[in-house]
Amino acid sequence: MIEPPITEYGVLLESKSEKPPICTTLKDLVQELHAVFSEDNVNVEYIHELMSSYKSNPLEWRRFAKFDRYRYTRNLVDEGNGKFNLMILCWGEGHASAIHDHANAHCFMKMLHGQLEEIRFAWPDEDDKTELPENEKGLAELSRTNLKTNQVCYINDSMGLHRVENPSHSDTAVSLHVYCPPFDSCNVFNQRTGEKSKSKVTFWSKFGTRKNADDDSSRQPEDV
Ligand SMILES: [Fe+2]
To answer: Does residue 98 lie in a domain region?
Structure first.
């Protein structure tokens, strides 16, 4: 087995006992995220509750929500003083990510619009599988979760890998993501063989502005 990277998940839960404030606007949420991430410890439960307390208001986030007709997009909202990245991902009908890890970072995902399906997988077996029959080589599916507007989910590498997809063929989806610490590449996995490869992650827009409209490299976001 590939050992999942060690994270501080268990201890982090104990580092903050007070209830988080309720964020009534996106601006409040950004401000609170800056405050919590200015500390060295990351309290997963606290941030989960903080993000849950914000009720999606499209008027506040639509200037960041820039879609591509071919693939889902990653749109940077805030760089979090280098401690975290806040971004909005826009999913067209049927768009899906690759199966990926999270580069040893914490990942929080909140639905702002529509629905997403999160499919979680176990890390691949490191042993040589060339002798195994085809149907036993792939990644083992662990769970499927349907996320609806305003729900929040959390993952780190100790919990496995995942793929995220918009199962709807008639509605788009928009999600808000916090990554701590920020990262610019992760691993993507072949579901059938378990093979992994490094993938750079890019932004489709930054701070509400699409700068590289003609740059094809920004069409390759692989992570969420
Ligand atoms: Fe992800």
So the answer is: yes
